[in-house]
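[audit] Reproducing an earlier prediction to check determinism. Same input, same settings, fresh worker. If the tokens differ from the archived copy the diff job will pick it up downstream; this log only records the rerun itself.
[audit] input (387 residues):
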Amino acid sequence: MQQKMVPYEYLDTPCVLVNLDQLDANIQEMTQHAVDAGIGLRPHTKVHQSAWIAMRQLEAGACGIEVGTIDQAEVMAHEGLNDIVVGHPFYGAHKLATLKRVVANPHNRVYPVVDMVEQAQGIAEVGRAVGRDMPVLLKIDTGGSPRYGVPPGEPAVEIAGEIGRLEGVRLAGVYGHEKGAKNTEEALSQKAFEDATMVCDTAKAIRNAGIELDHVSVGASPTFRWTCRLIREGRFPEITEIHPGNCVIGDIGYMMNGGNTREACAVTVLTSVMSVSHATYAVLDAGVKTFGADSLIGKRDTPGFFWEGMPSYGSIQGRPGLWLGRLHAESSCIHYMDHRERLSPGERLEIVPNNATLVINIHSKLYGVRNGEVERVISVTGRGVGS
């Protein structure tokens, strides 16, 4: 909702700020890469979970959105976003009932991602119930971070054939999501090339088996820039869409994975100092219930990951001598790395979180800030209904 613009220092803490200028710049960057490559941009919204931000992405040129779960699809469709890929395969009567509610509105175009025939069978039942074939995308396991997906090549072709024989469902395409590359230009470029090769070769093999596909997508936040570059170079004409997500918001975790720079992070947590009774640290009014508890321990081999045995839970804006080293339920401890650093009671700090997904999912609203003033209160549309 639109709010009267007020200086954000009047906000109570802890709360979550969105730098609207940086958000706009990130949206524009994502959009321009897709435009230059001549493909569709379908941003993943699971990080910001906001219908308002998603609408801004569509207004900038996105062809639709992606969500993590079918429950997320329902709340986004309720807000008028009606072209949705559901990135995580789902199964079971309750999930299928949600899908049926969404697609009962013929204006809603929903593309579930599957990696098993059994999932497609349930979706086919929904298709028969609503009287039209449901389009599905086959998730290809490209490796790097094992989760969902079928192996590329012949295993995918076999499952595609089985799905193609189901009444009430249509295999619309294949879907890959790159994970696991090291944060170097060479590694990210190589990962983009390898995964695009796997997904496109699989798409061609499925088409050679007589199954028409109109959707081939790859392009996660760390790799989408390199994917677009490869397409501009004339490679991988099969790719129709990319689906980066986190880079529109940014956080320390994705910075470490190559998805964004520290300067491009659009979300910060605004906190206040509650106590300076100890000489070596100060206590803030934000803890696990504000930040989540992601220490990014998987990156523990990164130089400088620990300070005095403690990982960091976020990066303090403009204060490199401070270390957010301990989180409690409703408070946290900022340690002085430099003995000359000192904080005062009531002093306010902005902190770029390790994991923006966790932070946003904990909060019902975000404060959109421009030029030091709150321009808009942004509802977290999908809070509490999935990833």
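[audit] rerun output stored. Observation attached for the diff report: The longest strand covers residues 267-275.
[audit] end
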